[in-house]
Amino acid sequence: MERPTSFSTIPLRFFVNLQTGRPALDADVALHFNPRLDSQRCVVLNSRRSKEWMAEERHALLVEEGEAMVPAFRPGKEGEVIIKAEDNHYQVGTTYYRYILQPSADPVA
Known about the structure:
This protein has no helices and 10 strands. The chain is mainly β. Strands 1, 2, 3, 4 and 5 form a 5-stranded antiparallel β-sheet that branches. A hairpin with a 2-residue loop joins strand 6 (62-65) and strand 7. It is globular.
């Protein structure tokens, strides 16, 4: 018998880290992109230098699309994340919206 999928089985958070230097748990992170579909309902952008997290940027999960407000991510739905490295910042695009983190923790090479 097939077990029905419930909302609680769908991950409500995920993250993408662009690390610099050697792979390690405490490596510098030039970009931390963390959508939170749980009760926080936001997208967090951040970076880490010398084992210290910088100030978080929090962005609304609901974004304007024309006249309507739509979720930047939708639980249980496929989406796309595109990360573009510029000279001194990152642009993170989703299926529905674009975020910008400035400045990056390290020069983008």
